[in-house]
Amino acid sequence: MSKLISTRAIRGAHKLVARAEKELMKAIAQKGPQVKVEFPNTGYYLPISYGMLGLKIETLGGLQDLLEEAKKLLPPIPDEKLWLPYLGHTLDAGMATLFADEIIEAIKYTQNPLPYLPETKPRDGHLWLGAANDVIMRERGIEFVDGTAPGFAACVGYAPTNEIAVRIARELQEKNLYVFISAATDGKSMARQLEEEGIQLGWETRLVPYGDDVTATVHSLGFATRVALSFGGAQPGDFQRVLRYNKNRVFAFVLALGPVNDEKHAQAAGAINYGFPTISETDIDQILPTGICTYEHVVSPVPLDKIVSKAIEVRGLKITVAKVPIPVPFGPAFQGERIHKEEMFVEMAAQVKPGFEYLRTRELDEVEDGKTELIGPEIDEVEEGSQMPLAILVEVAGREMQSDFEPILERRIHDFINCAHGIFHMGQRDINWVRVSKEAKDKGFKFKHFGSILHAKFHSDFGKIVDKVQVKIYTQEKEILELREIARKVYHQRDERLADMTDEAVEVFYSCTLCQSFAPNHVCIITPERSGLCGAYNWLDGKTAYQINPTGANQPVKKGKPIDGAKGQWQGVNEFVYAHSHKTLQAFNAYSIIDNPMTSCGCFECISCILPSANGIMSVYRDYAGMTPSGMKFSTLAGTVGGGVQTPGFIGHSKHYVGSRKFISAEGGAKRIVWMNRTLKQELQPLLQKIGEREGIENFFEMIADETVAITEEEVLDFITKKNHPALSLPPLF
Ligand code: SF4
Predict the structure, then answer these.
(1) Cβ proximity of 544 and 556 under 8 Å
(2) Ligand 1 atom nearest 513 alpha carbon
(3) pTM over 0.90
């Protein structure tokens, strides 16, 4: 660490200890050593000396013991030429500072009139409140324990303008943090700035003006000490436990606004003892290596428009956004809501227009938390009944975030957006489909609100791994088409990760019940060789999702005793599916399309169904709007297959499941495929060629019919007969 910052903190500590000694001697000389000193209505004496040293100081004379302790801790000011490991000395100087602060503040309580108003909010021109009493501490301290308030920002100094002071205060309040204000600079302080702007100060609004003296900063740390003593089980004098409790449980930091003198450096050193870092607007020397604080100790210079988010990041604070800030009601109750055509204001993507959803990880400094950008027209600029493209790009950052988590988080876009009343969402990846109702539009819902929803929900549901979320909403085609290629490459890489794993090699599969909002009895069983039927979750994703959230929608499913290995039926899986399908599904075969196949929700990428006269099956992707040889278009097929029911002869599945060795293996596997819509067939060409090689069928890809050569079952039969398709030599399906 820098010698410079250490020198300034130690020099500040020397000045404050000297000041404490001078004021104490003067007070004793004037009033006598027996004069009582106490903070108002507290059983914690002077909390820093009580918590750190176990001292029960009650008189001016008693403060002398504390002064001696401060002096003992004071390290020498670093020599010009001598190099030393400075952190330990800086911490000692910080603690000496807090002792000195406490002496100076305690002496104030012997003055008449008292320089503080010992109440919960300023009144009659009295701005500064001083130390909190025990009633306030218990009421408010419990919030630090139950998470209602994650911590506090100790703000010292002043902002360049009143407007900026208000903005910083509001930003901190929105994150549920307490704002403890002290240490005016040249008579200017953030508390005065807020007062001038008519902002309500006090414990009720969590904007607490402690005092304008730099030493009043000690009331923040005194409060933290009392929280550890009161709620953390720390004993007076057990300084290690007090400090560790604060480091681990009280998410606090110092925001240094404006110039930072030696005394403020010393306060920062005091706070570091508690694991509370300092974030400074002014360019002061930094202390970056981790150690006492969770991450960095002192970070500067940080622009004021980023100072709150930087502080939150450096302190490792996880923010939950209590309310989703959108103009329509929000909650799981709206998840199953459908928006019919006549109720719809706009439809987005839905394969009619391009779209995709993609979540990716970025570095912490590449993500501005809460930022939503709209690239393209907003809802007010489009005609009622329009169909338009939609891409949602979510960028997250977090010290615990891993790229393996991306698909799990990305799939949640579906149910998060569905929680908004008047908004319908279906699909994932590049088959997303959204409708916004006329009612939602009339209530003021904007496309930008997708960002508000995702920001709030990713923080609240994935706060452990996500520190920052920014969202880009695209509603114009050009950018969507470009970015979709990038997203598709990533989808492909994700699908490839499992290439060599088999169902036999594992004892546990994973469930997914995310789609129960639409299909209440549907359970996806995800195996290494069968991904979820939306294509967004594979076995590894299920495993990762379970690690992230052990009580979530993805649970391990023990296979148990095999019942039918060829069809893919196990006792453990049956029991799980029965219990989680509301007892509607007794048996389930993972590898069969005819005998007890898996249920389908509505998010499947493809539907396959049998074509009896061709002795094979057809597969259709959901963006194909034309007729299929089954006599039904995709939409009619989806109505038949979806909703969480078991439909023998039909299955919903992901595109890439076609390439799995277990794809309808009970009926002979992928060589049963006799028809595919053309775009799907082309997209899967490499995979179909691989299947041909695997099965020893030359030109398998060319043997499969599509809509350009056949749209009835008879035409398919004609085509495959000419091609000598292998399905014709397989045992009859019935
Ligand atoms: S389709 Fe299956 S795997 Fe995909 S989200 Fe729905 S339940 Fe989960």
Answers:
(1) no
(2) 7
(3) no
